[in-house]
Design goal:
The protein is an alpha/beta fold. The chain folds into two domains: about 280 residues, Purple Acid Phosphatase, chain A, domain 2 (4-Layer Sandwich); about 200 residues, 5'-Nucleotidase, C-terminal domain (5'-nucleotidase,  domain 2), CATH 3.90.780.10. About 30% of the residues lie in helices and about 30% in strands. It has 16 helices and 30 strands. It has a six-stranded mixed β-sheet, with helices on one face. Helix 8 links the parallel strand 11 and strand 12. Helix 10 packs across helix 16. It is globular and about 75 Å long. The termini are far apart.
């Protein structure tokens, strides 16, 4: 008769510095204090509990940004996850800083597919075996190739780091543990839900991978999915909820006998506060409030950014501000740079930082109408509608209508005039997106240089926003969705 043991596997992903609880409908929701309380009470009430995080601890809050992620590491040390994989935003403050942050962490950071070009060695510990209740659970960490897009901003990383195929690296780790009695094998990934499904298809069943716990795409699920016999689960984003597996493991055959999964809300009805962690977060908040509580702008109302792959009111406002500040015809404003779903009507410096945390440089360059049409058509390829590609908000004056069924532009105008192939426009873009323009918008850098050498006109997009709002401190800002981007289903 098979020997069956129970394991509780809690999992989060894409925390993005989401430390503070919010009051909603008379109760407190989210925050690391309540999250910690839930994890602790689960470990007290149940045997064999593991808590794992699938990447992106950094970026998204003033507390994280002000201390370059070290505040996040300190807070995570108190939260005490059992294992964490590297996400792409862990590299936002630079490779050297991440290696320093890892040394400050009292929990294991794992990744199997990032390598040094110098000596062909992995940059991080590839895996972690956690033993609980006479069971051995193997966690293997992998990250997506978006890391290498970010590498172009960091000379150290761009020169010395490269990414290997995730499936092959998972296989190597599994093969190395074949002689070990591993009861459950979990890939802790940060590649996105679609890539997780593709990854599962590429894993050899003989390697024995049972589960993929993922992140990056901020995917909310009603239930896990299965691909190639592998269970795949994501838990949305932030700390308002987490995923909870109750797994019955056949320790004779080293496989899952059965499982139940739930998406658990984190609030003051489901969890008790971790008072010690609450004090730590409060201390950080008090310190940052003094610097960031100043009112920067007033909006006519709350402006929203509900999804990154559509035109939004907040995206239009930011695109227009950058176009005006840069003095260009058109601003292609990276939709993913806007990290809040809404902003206003009163906007503090802290609100602005949390909404727009990426302090890129600002580049300007020229394109022909033909090139611009090609770029925006590529942006609207079918992958866009699953939110797994880069998307751009357009500044005022641009109007495009795109047919998904025909995969073609039906309307392409600037200031009410149809754009001609030979028309020339000046464009503005943030540096991360400009340096990856060949991958993100399928246009060759050499083509751009033929028209005019691209140039950096500002070292800080955050400075541009700050100065614009301060110079217009008596202005009431408005923003609305006005049909700049129309998609025909």
């Amino acid at each position: 008769m098979a020997k069956i043991k129970k394991l509780i596997l809690l999992h989060s992903n894409d925390l993005h510095g989401d430390f503070l609880a919010e009051e909603m409908e008379g109760k407190y929701v989210g925050g690391v204090s309540l999250l910690s309380g839930y994890v602790k009470q689960t470990k007290q009430a149940e045997e064999n509990v593991i808590y794992a995080i699938a990447g992106d601890l950094f970026r998204g809050s003033v507390i994280d940004e002000e201390y370059l992620g070290i505040s996040t590491v300190e807070i995570m040390n108190m939260l005490s996850p059992d294992v964490v994989t590297i996400g792409n935003h862990e590299f936002d403050y630079g490779m050297a800083h991440l290696l320093f942050a890892e040394r400050c962490a009292k929990f294991p950071f794992i990744n199997a597919n990032l390598y040094s070009k110098v000596n062909e060695a992995r940059l991080f510990t590839p895996c972690k075996v956690i033993e609980t209740g006479e069971m051995k659970v193997l966690f293997i960490g992998v990250v997506s190739d978006i890391v290498m897009a970010q590498a172009k901003k960091d000379p150290l990383m761009d020169t010395y780091v490269y990414l290997r195929d995730a499936a092959r690296e998972i296989g190597k780790v599994c093969n190395a543990y074949r002689s070990t009695d591993i009861d459950l094998t979990v890939v802790l990934s940060h590649v996105g839900i679609e890539e997780d499904k593709a990854l599962a298809k590429n894993l050899d069943p003989a390697w024995g991978v049972d589960m993929i716990i993922g992140g990056h795409s901020h995917t909310f699920m009603e239930q896990p999915i299965e691909e190639n016999g592998i269970v795949i689960a994501h838990a949305g984003t932030g700390v308002d909820a987490l995923g909870r597996f109750e797994i019955m493991i056949d320790t004779d055959d080293n496989c899952i006998a059965s499982y139940n999964w739930s998406f658990v809300p984190i609030n003051d009805e489901t969890a008790v506060r971790d008072e010690e962690l609450e004090r730590k977060v409060r201390n950080y908040k008090e310190a940052t409030d003094k610097k960031y509580e100043h009112v920067m702008a007033k909006f006519s109302g709350v402006l929203t950014h509900p999804k990154r792959n559509m035109e939004t009111a907040l995206g239009n406002l930011f695109a227009d501000i950058f176009r005006e500040s840069a003095g260009v015809d058109i601003m292609l404003m990276a939709s993913g740079s806007i990290r809040s779903k809404e902003l206003g009507a009163i906007v503090t410096r802290g609100d602005l930082r949390e909404t727009f945390p990426f302090d890129d440089a600002l580049y300007v360059f020229k394109v022909t109408g033909k090139m611009l049409k090609h770029m925006l058509t590529y942006m609207l390829r079918e992958e866009t509608f699953t939110e797994h590609t880069e998307f751009y908000q357009l500044s005022g004056g641009m109007k495009i209508t795109y047919s998904r069924s025909e995969k073609a532009m039906k309307q392409f105008t600037f200031n009410g005039v149809t754009v001609g192939d030979d028309d020339v426009f000046s464009l503005g873009m943030q540096s991360f997106h400009f340096t990856n323009i060949e991958d993100f918008l399928n246009v060759e850098y050499a083509q751009l240089e033929k028209l005019q050498r691209p140039r950096m006109i500002a070292t800080s997009c955050v400075d541009v926003l700050d100065e614009f709002f301060m110079s217009n401190d008596r202005r009431i800002f408005t923003g609305e969705v006005e049909g700049r981007i129309e998609i025909i289903p």
